[in-house]
Write a structure and sequence with these properties.
two-stranded antiparallel sheet, single chain, globular, alpha+beta, 2 domains, 10 strands
Length: 275
């Protein structure tokens, strides 16, 4: 089990090798168990606590392996703020990686129910998020929320076959050093998009493998190296004024998902060009 004491400036996150219990989840993300919506919500707001949806997903074979919630400045929103659960289905767990369904929600109006597709690589303890918009299911807080979330979970689950085809195609595509550097350069702009401030690290740094098995030159390996180095951070770099620094991990829920999805779209787009 891995407990992170920081999730975007202090907000906690918890990932486990085994399904998380309600007590474990409650200590890290109490907003999942909110008993009512935030007072800012109107009567039209259909309130379904995330914990009720989670219990329904559990009954369908989905189990939570990671939870987190955003840090808020106003304490009155802490019990209602945006949260994320990453779940795996019994049919989608294997030895090297596990497909995950990512559930986003809040009880203060900052987020609708949203289902995304992801993958967790056990070797690097880092979860990537697929950027295919066909696997992004949004459910407003009205009507049969629980039923729509269950349907959305199976819709995302069914889409993993298409993602596996993209992964296999990426593994079959070799990139030369120039192509890999172009990919890395584009990836850098996704995280460091301020034209007035150059990126503190180079393309070669984010292409550097952290383990021997990731040294291959295929598109899938290049994508995974880039994704891990940008998301995890910790790389030595220089600020615009020349001061030494280490790159920060992308810990915020929204920033993590946005960058993850953009990297996937970049890699999948290159796959289509090279196919």
């Amino acid at each position: 089990m891995q407990l992170s004491s920081r999730f975007k400036s202090g907000a906690p996150a918890l990932r486990s090798d085994y399904p998380l219990s309600d007590d474990q989840i409650r200590r890290v993300a109490p907003s999942i168990f909110a008993e009512m919506p935030h007072t800012s919500r109107s009567e039209r707001y259909s309130y379904i606590p995330t914990c009720a949806v989670l219990n329904e997903l559990r009954s369908e074979g989905f189990q939570p392996f990671m939870v987190c919630q955003t840090r808020v400045r106003n304490d009155d929103r802490r019990e209602f703020t945006k949260h994320m659960i990453r779940l795996r289905h019994a049919s989608q767990i294997n030895g090297a990686e596990a497909n995950e369904i990512i559930l986003l929600n809040s009880h203060d109006g900052t987020s609708s129910y949203q289902m995304l597709a992801g993958m967790f690589r056990f070797v690097c303890q880092n979860g990537l998020v697929y950027g295919d918009t066909l696997m992004d299911v949004r459910i407003p807080h009205k009507g049969d929320v629980t039923g729509h979330v269950i349907e959305g979970a199976y819709e995302v689950l069914g889409g993993f076959e298409r993602v596996a085809e993209s992964q296999e195609a990426m593994q079959a595509i070799s990139l030369d050093s120039g192509e890999a550097e172009v990919f890395a350069s584009a990836a850098l702009t996704l995280k460091y998009d301020d034209p007035e401030r150059p990126a503190p690290i180079t393309e070669s740094q984010i292409l550097m493998p952290r383990r021997r098995d990731d040294r291959n030159s295929d598109l899938w390996s290049v994508f995974n190296r880039t994704q891990e180095n940008l998301i995890k951070g910790g790389l030595p770099g220089r600020t615009a004024t020349g001061n030494r620094q280490r790159t920060r991990a992308v810990a915020g829920i929204d920033q993590n998902i946005k960058l993850n999805r953009a990297l996937w779209l970049l890699a999948d787009g290159l796959r289509k060009l090279k196919s």
